[in-house]
Specification:
Elements lengths: L4 H13 L3 H10 L3 H10 L3 H10 L3 H10 L3 H10 L3 H10 L3 H10 L3 H10 L3 H10 L3 H17 L6 H21 L3 H10 L3 H10 L3 H10 L3 H11 L6 H10 L3 H10 L3 H10 L3 H10 L3 H10 L3 H10 L3 H11 L2 H10 L3 H10 L3 H8 L9 H14 L3 H12 L9 H13 L3 H14 L6 H9 L4 H10 L18 H4 E10 L2 E8 L5 E7 L7 H14 L10 E7 L2 E7 L4 E2 H8 L4 H20 L12 E3 L5 E3 L17 H6 L3 H4 L6 H17 L28 H10 L11 H7 L10 E2 L3 E9 L4 E7 L4 E8 L5 H14 L10 E7 L2 E7 L3 E3 H6 L6 H20 L12 E4 L4 E3 L5 H8 L14 H4 L6 H17 L9 H10 L5 H4 L5 H10 L11 H12 L9
Antiparallel strand pairs: 1-2, 2-3, 3-5, 4-5, 6-7, 7-8, 9-10, 10-11, 11-12, 12-14, 13-14, 15-16, 16-17
Helix pairs in contact: 1-2, 2-3, 3-4, 4-5, 5-6, 6-7, 7-8, 8-9, 9-10, 10-11, 11-12, 12-13, 13-14, 14-15, 15-16, 15-17, 17-18, 18-19, 19-20, 20-21, 21-22, 22-23, 23-24, 24-25, 25-26, 26-27, 27-28, 28-29, 29-30, 30-31, 36-39, 36-41, 39-40, 42-45, 44-47, 44-51, 47-50
Length: 1024
């Protein structure tokens, strides 16, 4: 039986007599006696169960009191809130540590000041600032908003850039409006600017006296007329002329802008303005002021002042351009001398030829190198001169050299004709006749070749006569009347030397031209002309369209023909092995080589596609790698259809390389070639075993790279190859040039071996001069950093650079990153230096609050000491800034890039820009004056300002505005920002930032010694 009420009451009384009030209360509750249970709980001091019982009885106020006595403050707060006792409720929530809930209750009850204080105490500064702002405590609101701005800007880990910017704009807008309302427009202006309220910020700047900044913001806001009115009201002398120039440009007043730029000492920008205004002469004068001789010459040339342009071109070391101007000026002798100075021998020779100076002309023409682009034209002109001088043997030799390696075509007929005439004149008609016949087969009506053939054919056997007549258009006994081209036996023109093997469709032979002796590659397609006439016609026609295609990565097609044994193609012979053979023998290439390979092939495809030619058979067995590591495409454009090659060698790989549209019998296009290029890349990355079965590629190259893969393919190659191999051709790259754009700057991928010594591990960063890679020195088995040098570097600049590297190697200070050597590999120049595991100074500062004084002094002292050793060796850095300082794993600062700034100053960086960061550039450096160790000390002062205060001394988004500050403005004393900064350090930083180099400290060692005294010192008492 179950216990009844009487049993519960007995147990309750028994427990109560025994002093067990908890059990007594529980049994009274079970017996349905809540009041007696409540009395038992209260008698035993059991407030929490008493509170729950009060809730059941509906006495919320009593429950709240009981919860409070039990220490359950949150529950007490909830009960007080339910019983509408807000005062007690918020106090309970406060005691429970729920400050937000307490503040919300206070806010609802109208106690805004107390609510704001609790919000702030809870870390909810935005809510606190809102209440302070709306209830007459703007100073407190501003204080919190500025803290929120600083905190948001520093929070790069938890906030996306867009969200971070949005929050900063919101806080800045509120802060700016509070400052403005309080009448502090000077403080309001930068906040309004940061919030994007440019017009309001401009007015604040104007009212606070900073009219230059006001004009700048009005222009950025598109309010040029208001900006102009402000300038006119104040007078142009009160403004930076560069700012006035920009205002004039926005208003379309280019001539006025040019004058302002000249006044600002920036004639380079003035040139562009005067040009746009159509003032060519004024632009040329500005270019002269900028010491841009070539630019001034170009402008005088545009103004048809030929003599002055030529003179400036010569001064600028541009004799070729000077020659063109002198030709227009009618000074042919001087023009010829300029062409000679420029190495343009053919142009000089043509001028001399026109003047009748034939002997001098011969002398000049014989200086043209045989591999020069204009060597052929030079040979022609030289042959013409020798012909006029009746030196027929020499003339024939020149014409023959001009024709060497060229297939007869309409463009070569005049030269063939001249050569034939010279040979005929010199009594070698037997050699002239075949040339005339070649001309006749292309253009029978050319000049008088028919008559010359007839005359030279007299006494020749009948079969040869018939062949000559056939060339003139009569019916030939060996001509195919079905439309097949005239049969031309291969052996008449070429001699077979050796078999090279089989390719898709037929055999390949090594051959030799019977006339010139040049070695060629002959490919035969065994199509019987009588049975396969249609195919033969198509193949010959397609081949003829490719004869003129030229690109360094395409083996040229020289000839195509048909004879009783089938169609034959004749290419240049190039030594080498196919990519398929190379990978089978040496293994897969590194990924850097794969990028180079695909880039070279894509360049060839881009050229061919522009000429309307498709490759159609790009595969690993049609890519030739020469002993010189050149990449060439074999049999470009000569692809049999699938139905024409059944049973021939290479069927399997041809099918594996077939684009989906080919299998669907659709027309091929440039994207079909890119599909094949993707397969070449896939095979080079993973091997032939991983080529997909025909037609199995999917969207975005799905399943192309298996997991686990034979080796991890870099994301760049996965992306490029995957897009090439899209089944839907509309999803592939539209053109080869779009693929090439993906590979810009990707020569060094992980796994690449550079200079046979350095294995690239990863890209570690990018800078103004190039990329930085972490690499492993395979010789010494240690980590190094490779810093690439982009941009042009002429021979004098390179010599200076190497000398700087030699000097930099002398620096052995522990706070300077060691420089090892300067190397060249392919077209790449790079510096090998010590690899440092660490983070940039800016990043190091961002990840912590303002560093303690002793730590900041330690970091500053180490930087100064490293700089001091370099200066003692006579080495100036020229670009000291946070980006060139790394904090290593031990917390020590290391200075980067000694020996690099000078070469950047010599032209590696973008033309027209001074080396260095505007925010850390010494005034003399900004003005283009000579720099020395004192310039580094100025930059060091700016770095120390940042380290000790957490703020940059000079700020702004416009580099020109920042440079003007460097030239004319002293920053706020660091001690006014960081009050615990010792006066001695404050004075030292301000001395370092003196505009006059003579007023700066004597050396970096002096700076280091001062900072060392504070590096281990106890924190001073903050200044009041």
């Amino acid at each position: 039986m179950f216990p009844g009420v009487s049993d519960f009451l007995k147990k309750a009384r028994k427990a109560e007599r025994a002093g067990d009030y908890s059990t007594a209360g529980d049994f009274y509750s079970l017996a349905g006696e809540p009041l007696r249970a409540l009395a038992a709980y209260q008698k035993g001091g059991l407030h929490e169960p008493a509170a729950r019982l009060h809730v059941e009885l509906g006495d919320i106020s009593a429950a709240a009191d009981a919860y409070m006595k039990a220490g359950e403050f949150r529950s007490a707060g909830e009960m007080y809130l339910k019983s509408d006792q807000q005062e007690k409720a918020w106090r309970m929530y406060k005691r429970a540590g729920d400050l937000r809930q307490a503040a919300e209750i206070l806010e609802k009850t109208g106690k805004h000041a107390e609510a704001a204080a609790l919000y702030e105490q809870a870390g909810l500064r935005e809510q606190a600032a809102r209440l302070y702002a709306s209830h007459a405590r703007p100073a407190d609101a501003i204080r919190l908003l500025e803290a929120l701005i600083q905190e948001t800007e520093a929070d790069r880990l938890n906030l996306e850039s867009a969200e971070r910017a949005q929050r900063v704009r919101r806080f800045s807008e509120a802060c700016g409006k509070l400052y403005a309302k309080a009448g502090n427009l000077k403080a309001a202006a930068p906040h309004l600017e940061r919030a994007g309220l440019l017009q309001e910020a401009a007015r604040a700047y104007r009212e606070s006296g900073d009219r230059t900044r006001a004009v700048d913001l009005l222009m950025r806001a598109g309010l040029e007329q208001e900006a102009a009115s402000l300038v006119e009201g104040q007078g142009t002398g009160a403004f930076d002329p560069r700012l006035l120039a920009e205002l004039s440009l926005k208003r379309g007043e280019h001539a006025q802008a040019g004058e302002h730029y000249l006044h600002a000492g920036d004639p380079g920008l003035a040139v562009e303005c005067f040009e746009r205004a159509g003032m060519v002469v004024r632009a040329a004068e500005a270019a002269l002021a900028a010491r841009d001789l070539a630019g001034a010459a170009r402008l005088f040339r545009a103004g048809e002042d030929w003599r002055r342009a030529a003179d400036l071109y010569r001064q600028a070391g541009l004799p070729a351009e000077a020659a063109d101007c002198l030709v227009r000026a009618g000074d042919a002798p001087a023009a010829a001398e300029c062409h000679l100075a420029a190495g343009e021998f053919l142009k000089a020779a043509r001028i001399l030829f026109g003047r009748g100076e034939l002997d001098r002309c011969i002398e000049v023409l014989q200086k043209i190198p045989r591999d020069a682009d204009d060597a052929e034209d030079g040979c022609l002109l030289l042959g013409q001169i020798f012909e006029e001088k009746s030196l027929l043997t020499l003339a024939a030799d020149c014409y023959g050299r001009a024709l060497a390696g060229r297939t007869p075509e309409p463009a070569t007929l005049p030269v063939l004709y001249r050569l034939g005439r010279v040979l005929e004149k010199s009594g070698r008609g037997d050699q002239a006749r075949p040339l005339y016949e070649q001309i006749a087969t292309i253009d029978f009506k050319f000049e008088d070749v028919a008559a010359r053939i007839g005359r030279l054919a007299a006494g020749v056997p009948a079969v040869a006569a018939r062949r000559a007549a056939g060339a003139a258009g009569s019916t030939l006994e060996d001509e195919d009347t079905s439309g097949l081209p005239a049969l031309r036996p291969l052996e008449e023109t070429y001699e077979k030397l050796a078999a090279l093997g089989q390719v898709k469709g037929g055999p390949v032979f090594l051959g030799r031209e019977r006339s010139g002796g040049r070695q060629v590659r002959i490919r035969r397609l065994p199509l019987a002309p009588d049975r396969d006439a249609t195919k033969a016609v198509r193949l010959v026609q397609e081949g003829k369209r490719l004869i003129g295609l030229r690109h360094p990565a395409i083996v040229p097609l020289l000839d195509v023909g048909v004879d009783p044994n089938g169609v034959y193609y004749v290419h240049e012979h190039r030594e080498g092995k196919t990519l398929e053979e190379v990978m089978r023998e040496a293994g897969l290439p590194d990924f850097g080589t794969v990028v180079s390979l695909l880039s070279r092939l894509a360049e060839a495809l881009d050229c061919a596609h522009a000429e309307g030619a498709l490759c159609r058979n790009l595969r690993s067995d049609t890519v030739l790698i020469t002993p010189q590591r050149e990449v060439l495409i074999l049999d470009f454009g000569l692809a049999l259809r699938l139905t024409e090659s059944a049973g021939s060698a290479g069927d399997e790989i041809a099918l594996r390389y077939a684009p989906p549209e080919l299998l669907l019998r659709e027309r091929l296009d440039v994207r079909s070639d890119l599909y094949c290029l993707g397969l070449v890349g896939l095979e080079a990355c993973l091997g032939a075993a991983h080529l997909p079965a025909p037609g199995t590629t999917g969207p975005r190259g799905a399943a192309l790279f298996p997991e686990p893969a034979p080796r991890p393919v870099p994301a760049l190659l996965r992306r490029v190859i995957g897009r090439c191999l899209e089944r839907d051709r509309n999803q592939r790259y539209p053109a080869a040039r779009d693929l090439l754009a993906e590979f810009q700057g990707a020569q060094l991928l992980p796994g690449a071996i550079v200079a046979n010594r350095y294995e690239v591990v990863r890209e570690a960063g990018r800078g103004g001069m190039g990329e930085v890679y972490e690499a492993r020195d395979l010789v010494l088995d240690e980590r190094v950093a490779l810093k690439t040098i982009s941009g042009a570097l002429d021979e004098p600049a390179q010599k200076r650079f190497i000398n700087e590297i030699k000097l930099a190697r002398k620096i052995t200070h522990p706070n300077v990153v060691r420089v090892f050597t300067f190397e060249q590999w392919r077209d790449l120049r790079f510096i090998v230096m010590e690899y440092i595991e660490g983070q940039g100074l800016t990043q190091w500062l961002r990840k912590r609050a303002l560093p303690p004084l002793a730590e900041a002094a330690r970091v500053g002292c180490a930087i100064a000491e490293g700089l001091g050793q370099a200066h003692a060796l006579g080495i100036v850095h020229r670009d000291i800034k946070p980006e060139n300082i790394v904090i290593d794993a031990a917390g020590s600062p290391r200075i980067l890039d000694f020996g690099i700034a000078r070469v950047a100053d010599s032209g590696v960086t973008q033309a027209g820009l001074a080396i260095g960061s505007p925010k850390y550039m010494a005034p003399e450096q900004a003005e283009g004056k000579p720099v020395d160790a004192r310039s580094d000390l100025y930059s060091l002062g700016l770095v120390l300002y940042l380290v000790f205060t957490g703020k940059e001394a000079f700020t702004g988004t416009d580099p020109r505005v920042v440079l003007m500050q460097q030239l004319h403005k002293m920053p706020e004393p660091p001690r006014s920002i960081r009050h615990d900064l010792p006066e001695a350090v404050d004075r030292m930083i301000l001395r370092l930032l003196a505009k006059n180099p003579a007023e700066r400290p004597r050396s970096a060692a002096e700076v280091g010694a001062l900072l060392a005294s504070f590096a281990a010192a106890p924190a001073p008492v903050p200044a009041r």
